[in-house]
Amino acid sequence: MKILGFILMLLPLAFQSIAQDIHWSQYNDNPIFQNPGNSGKFKGDYRFYANYRDQWRSVTKPFSTISISADTRFSENPKFGLGLMVFSDQAGDGAFKTIEVQAAPSYQFKISPDSTHTLRAGFQLGMNYRQVNMSKFSFDAQFDGIQFDESLSTNESFQNDRKTNISIGTGVVYEWFQNDRKRISAGVAVFNVNRPNQGFYGTKVLRDPRLNLFAKGQFKVDFDWDILPSFQMNFQGKYKEIVLGSTARYILIDRLGEYRAIYFGAFFRNKDAGYLSVGVDYQNWYTGVSYDLNFSKLVPASKARGGVEVSIRYILTRFKPKSQIHRICPDYI
After folding, report:
1. What is d(CA 47, CA 68) in angstroms, rounded to the nearest whole number?
2. What letter does residue 139 receive in the DSSP assignment?
3. How confident is the model at residue 97 (pLDDT cuts 50, 70, 90)?
4. Which pLDDT value is given to residue 257?
5. Residues 6 or more apart from 89 whose CB is under 8 A from it?
6. Alpha-carbon distance 85 to 29, whole Å?
7. What is d(CA 96, CA 100) in angstroms, rounded to the nearest whole number?
């Protein structure tokens, strides 16, 4: 109930002001972007993610987003985690580019002595850089009476076409863990707490705080099958995103150090799109692909085509030999 109260307390932050952050369809495969409390929340020593999204290619210049992240736990004290995320996003005719670099330290608290219930809190601090290429736009002065001529002067003077800001976020993730095939986790995070100014010129354009809520589970259906339902909500100014769905996992082999599994998923994003996903586990590697089917008011232009997204994960686990105690035999034996 304390966690629910904390979530309700943060809800008003979601409904203040206009700019939007990027979003991912495979939100469970970009954990640091989802919540800084996810840093270090995995089984292994080092975790690496690469994500790519391409959308609206059928409508305008494609919106392309690339993200790379890595996180770990400190071997001296596994309660401490640290994550690093870098993403680049380019959108529209003006090649509007956003680059973010975020560091995300975290710390885990035990709610129960046996670690069945845990809480991991995280903090995010980083740099946000935005740039727009004004030369890619067309202006009235470039119309010669018949057509637009890019060689003509725009007769426009732009003081600035780039902006750099500091962004701050925080989050907490709760997990109930029984075993590797039966677990539930939920989290709440707030980003852009400091509301950085994104305006290129004199007018202030404050970046709205973004509230993220998520919950997911993993449940064993039978010997080979698991079901992994999840949902995520994002609130940022007038923008609202609610996604829910589920993935099914079929384990091909899991014995003697060999592991293979395949995934099939279907998700729904409110008033916007539905999407399908497939994925493959191969030892410590995972690769997932999803495709959005758009059914919003943009359908006449998009022809129901949304975007494709790819995610890759690798978990590095170092070999830890068992310590052996050797006894020295006395000389008389």
Report:
1. 11
2. -
3. confident
4. 87
5. 22, 63, 64, 65, 66, 97, 98, 99
6. 13
7. 14
CA dist 230 and 213 (Å) reads: 11
3-state secondary structure of 91: strand
3-state secondary structure of 327: coil
Q: Which position has the token pair 């959005």?
A: 292
Per-residue model confidence as pLDDT tens digits over 22-53: 778 999 999 999 999 999 999 999 999 999 99
Residue 234 CB coordination number (10 Å): 22
pTM: 0.80
Chain segment 202-257, per-residue pLDDT in tens: 778 888 999 999 999 999 999 999 999 999 999 998 889 999 999 999 999 999 88
Dig out the tokens for 106 from the structure: 């975290």
pLDDT tier at 136, thresholds 50, 70, 90: low
Residues 267, 244 contacting (CB under 8 angstroms): yes
Q: Which CATH number fits domain 2-316: 2.40.160.60, 2.60.120.10, 1.20.1250.20, 1.10.3720.10?
A: 2.40.160.60
What pLDDT digit, counting tens, does each position of 149-170 carry?
666 666 555 556 778 899 999 9
Q: Which two tokens stand for residue 264?
A: 């099939």
Would you say 87 and 100 are in contact if contact means Cβ atoms under 8 Å apart? yes
Residues linked to residue 283 through DSSP beta bridges, in sequence order: none
- Half-sphere exposure in the Cβ direction for 198 (13 Å, CA): 22
Q: To which residue do tokens 């539930």 refer?
A: 184
Ramachandran bin of 296, using left for φ above 0, alpha for ψ from -120 to 50, beta for the remaining angles: beta
Handedness of CA 2, 191, 269, 215 (dihedral sign): negative
Q: Identify the burial level of 268 via C-beta atoms within 10 angstroms of its C-beta, where 0-12 means exposed, 13-18 middle and 19 or more buried.
A: middle
